[in-house]
Amino acid sequence: MRQILTERDYQEFIVGELETRHHYLERDDSDFDRRYMIDTGILMEFLSETQKDTIQALSKIYKQDLQETILGAINNEATKRGGSLLSVLKRGIELSNRTLTLMYPKPATSFNAELSGKYRANRFTVVQEVWTTEEEEERIDLVICLNGLPIVSFELKCNASGQSVEDAIWQYRKERDPKSRLFLFKAGTLVNFAMDLNEVYMTTKLDGEKTFFLPFNMGSGEGVYAGKGNPPTKDDYPVSYMWKEILAPDSLIELISKFIFIQTKESVDETTGRKQRSEAIIFPRYHQLRAVRRILADVVENGSTRNYLIQHSAGSGKTNSIAWLAHRLASQHDENDEVIFNNVIIVTDRVVVDRQLQKAVMGLEHKSGLIQVMGDKATSADLAKALMGNTKIVATTIQKFPYIVDTVSSLKDKRFAVIIDEAHSSTSGKDMSAITQTLGSGDTGEVDVEDMLADEIRKNGKQDNVSIFAFTATPKPTTLQLFGTQTPKGLWEAFDVYSMKQAIEEGFILDVLTNYTTYDTFYRLNKAIEEDPRCKTSDAKRQIARFVALHETNIQQRIEVIIEHFRTTVARELGGTAKAMVITGSRQEAVKYRQALEDYVTRKGYQDIHALVAFSGKVTLEGDKTEYTEAGMNGFPEARLSSEFDKDDYRVLLVANKYQTGFDQPKLCAMYVLKTLRGVSAVQTLSRLNRICPPYDKRTFVLDFVNDYEAIKNSFAPYYTTTMLSNTVTSNGIYELETKIDGYLVLDPDDVEKANDLIYSGSTTAKTRQRIIYYLQRAKAAIERLPIEEQLEIQGLMKSFVRFYEFLIQATSFEDTDLHRKYNFITYLLRFFAVKHPGSGFDLKGKIQASNFVQKKTGEHATPNLVAKPVVSLPLAGSLGMSEDEEQELSKILAEINARTGQNFDQDIAVKALLQIRDLLLKSEALKTSARNNTESDFEFSYYSAIDDALLAGLGQNQEFFSLLLNNDETKKQLMGLFSRDIYQNLRNGE
User: Over the stretch 169-208, which tens digit does the pLDDT of each residue have?
Assistant: First the structure.
């Protein structure tokens, strides 16, 4: 039977497309000088046309040896230590103090006709069936050359002939010699593609069986349907974007001049102490290239008029995407050949600019002085100086902006591109407002207070001279509203999406919800005191949870589970180099778990498990005056933790609110969770495990002692594909909040007006400050005259008002100067209510005791079967308010916890039984007489003696529970003490 399509048919079809679409010239394998794998004829044609004078001058020097000299010089530059084909193409070669340019990049503007002409003179050729060695032992299907120099190779397979991209990958690994001149790392082709009719994979380094391939596919489908592969096409092949888009001359020259770079990493050999240097050619993945190109095309059309949200999954190479975008935005011109942005500012919400991001931005080729990173010791003044100077790219933290709002001037005529690394909570409040106010344009002439208020409102929102490019894998509703793009259906979504689902399916990241095991901790709580104080439910639960979390027995049991699981299941992964992270709930937990871990492995004689700890500041433990620090416990400075943990010496890292975001350690295989994780926090924390670790087939393991598996799945669901915002923020909600606040009659409108006049007067005298404080103190006093419940209510409403209003003026064009006055006043007023360490109502320290700890496995989940839930919504203004704490007796709280953690008696049954006893006691004539004739303390003698009679009378109704009370005086007294005052008062008053 005749085949529909053969591999050779497919190969010739691609060559035809390149010739027709992009004017490639097809060359023959015999045109190559096999020693250097250079098409000599094309190279010399290009040089003679574009650099005629230089070639003529060199001909006089080298005469008939000129061609051989040029070939030798190119080969020497490409193969020498530190050299590369990429460097040769970008910088050319030197001969007799003359430079020969081997590639002309596209000029930034059309002003220079000569450069534009030379750019068009670049020659692209395609060669079929290229012998890769002088011995002609193996052939590659296609080779793409630029000015005679091979830059891309293709191994093609045809699905219609029974082969696929996997066979092409196998050929590269098994039948292609990495040491051949064509494939020599850095000196040979820049990238090698394995391609069939449906999919494309790429590698930048052939390394035999260890050759690592990455998918280079568009993704099949969009939005919630996005996944791996490429979408089917009716009249073309799914991989047609390769010859239509990627192999276009403009595209390849842009890739070489603007994207591809050599990444260098240095490490220290643990045995010899010598520095080791490793290099990798970085070629952008398809989604990275697509995102940068889409953004640049839109910026050329729209200038600085809009914001952009880029939702790229963890493990998507976000750091390099940011670096590429920053460099491109810094030099991008519009259609009128004018620079679009004067400055590019990379902003991170971490305490210091991420070092990996620093290296990526600085690592791309740039002129001296183009980039300035605000390092660990940089101040806000340094940032202000950089913004007012000529530095094109500035990398800084978002926390520095509030301090320079009033000091930076002369920025209104500049246009800024602000790239945000991980756009989350800090990008929807005061810090983000500080950025827009600092960089925003506006009038600076004579204005009154009303004008100043209006200008301040405008500067909090989208500024005409500022475009924000926000990167995140987990966009919150507020992030979508601030930076997202509105669809025709009224939903808000990211400008570009590379989903978690696609990244997992393509093998860029791992699914951390597989091999997920949950544990519950069962224990019994008792009071260690006689009295039974009243305390707030939330406060008491928090204190009890903390008490249990730090309990020695609980920690010892969990450490045993963790260590034995690591030893038996995890430690042998990745060739015996696998590591684990323990997520603790507090700094004290981190210290105690580290101590317990070291004690346990020492007692067991395990020599191969040692742990590091990560937490901020100093920590003390109850009954221990020692001040514990991260550096002190680890034995080296904090800055060395990442590099030290990478060594084989350390297998476990215990963290407390550190290294849960942005920490990239591919050898992490297991995570032990000891704290509650929800929403974005759950996704970010567990995603520390998702990095692949070539060449190993990495597996991940999670043991969760706290969270429910379904709740964790629900945290991941909104970010599994694309995330869309279904509603938007409106002004109605803020006016409703204002009305509720006004209803308490504590804010004098005249005081609000006068305080704002002083705030915007420009006066900073002591008298001005005193007057403002006077107005605020008047409002504070009015609030404190309210009942305590109403005080808490209005404080909650005011906090909601501030949060909602700050978001409203950033996300919309809303403008109301009267409301802004009230916002200013309330913002200052709330500071007077801020209590750093509020009282908890009652301190349970030493008043409860826990026993009978059991760690019980409650579920093992091999596959998550996660269903995307892409639609999220903003909270309404009213729903932002603070709920009132319900108060319960301490014994009720203990009963609730014990019932929830596996005790014998259901809470409802126990309460019902106690009420039965109470009813029997209320009918006692003897107790009624005692209540009328005695004080409450004297009444208790007869009360407790009467309880046994009531228990015997009701024994038939709940024999098991009543027998427990009859046989346990302490428990009986603890529980029945709940009703003594109530019964005394009822009986005494004759009810």
Answer: 999 999 999 999 999 999 999 999 999 999 999 999 999 9
Over 196-265, what HEC string results?
Answer: CCCCEEEECCCECECCCCEECCCCECCHHHCECCCCCCCCCCCCCHHHHHHCCHHHHHHHHHHHCEEEEE
**Which pLDDT does position 934 carry in this prediction?**
77
**In this structure, are residues 394 and 401 in contact, taking their beta carbons and an 8 Å threshold?**
no
Alpha-carbon distance of 648 to 576, in angstroms, equals 9
Tokens encoding 580: 């684990």
181 phi/psi in degrees, rounded to 5: -60, -35
Give the tens place of pLDDT for each residue, 89-135. Answer: 999 999 999 999 999 999 888 788 889 999 999 999 999 999 987 77
Closest listed residue to residue 154, CA positions, set 112, 198, 202, 114: 202
Are the beta carbons of 485 and 494 closer than 8 angstroms? yes
CA angle 964, 968, 970 (to 5 degrees): 130
Identify the H or E element spanning 471.
Answer: strand 466-472
CA–CA gap between residue 178 and residue 161 (Å, rounded): 27
Residues contacting 177, CB < 8 A, separation 6+: 132, 133, 138, 183, 206
What is the model's pLDDT at position 539? 57
**Which residues lie across from 579 on neighbouring strands?**
668
pLDDT in tens, 296-315: 999 999 998 888 999 998 77
Each residue of 750-784: b (16+ CB within 10 Å) or e? ebbebbbebbbeeeeeeeeeebbeebbeebeebbe
The tokens describing 769, both together, are 């400050």
SS3 576: helix
| Mean pLDDT score, 622-635 | 91
Instruction: Give the β-pairing of 343-348 and 124-131.
Output: unpaired
The answer to whether the CB of 696 falls within 8 A of the CB of 575 is yes
CA distance 294 to 249: 18
Say how far apart CA 375 and CA 382 lie, in whole Å. 10
In degrees, rounded to 5, the angle at the alpha carbon of residue 969 between the alpha carbons of residues 968 and 975 is 95
Give first-to-last CA distance, the chain, whole Å: 102
Q: For 879-916, give the DSSP string.
A: GGSPPPPPEEEHHHHHHHHHHHTT-SS-HHHHHHHHHH
To the nearest 10°, report the CA torsion of 960, 966, 970, 971: 20
Residue 716 phi/psi, 5-degree rounding, is: -80, -30
Peptide bond before residue 695 is cis, with ω within 30 degrees of 0: yes
Q: With left for phi above 0 and alpha for psi between -120 and 50, is residue 533 left, alpha or beta?
A: beta
pLDDT tens digits, 553-562: 778 888 888 8
Give the residue-averaged pLDDT of 892-898: 47
Kindly give the pairing relationship between strand 124-131 and strand 139-146: antiparallel
**What's the distance, CA 774 to chain centroid?**
44
Token pair for residue 10? Answer: 């497919």
Element (H, E) at 485: strand 485-486
Helix, coil or strand: residue 134: coil
Higher per-residue pLDDT: 383 or 826: 826
Contact call for residues 220 and 229 (beta carbons, < 8 A): yes
Phi, psi of 693 (to 5 degrees): -140, 75
**The two three-digit tokens of residue 748, written as one number:** 């004098």
In this prediction, residues 562-576 reach a mean pLDDT of 90
**List of residues 6+ apart from 744 with CB closer than 8 A:** 783, 786, 790, 794
* Collapsed DSSP state (helix, strand, coil) of residue 868: coil
Residue 232 has a CB neighbour count (10 Å cut-off) of: 10
CA 224 to chain centre: 20
Whole-model pTM: value is 0.73
Identity of the residue numbered 495: F
- Cα-based distances in Å from 700 to 210, 516, 654, 859: 22, 9, 17, 16
**CB proximity list for 222: less than 8 A, separation 6 or greater:** 497, 722
Quick one: which of 126, 127, 125, 106 has its CA closest to 117? 106
- Contact call for residues 178 and 185 (beta carbons, < 8 A): yes
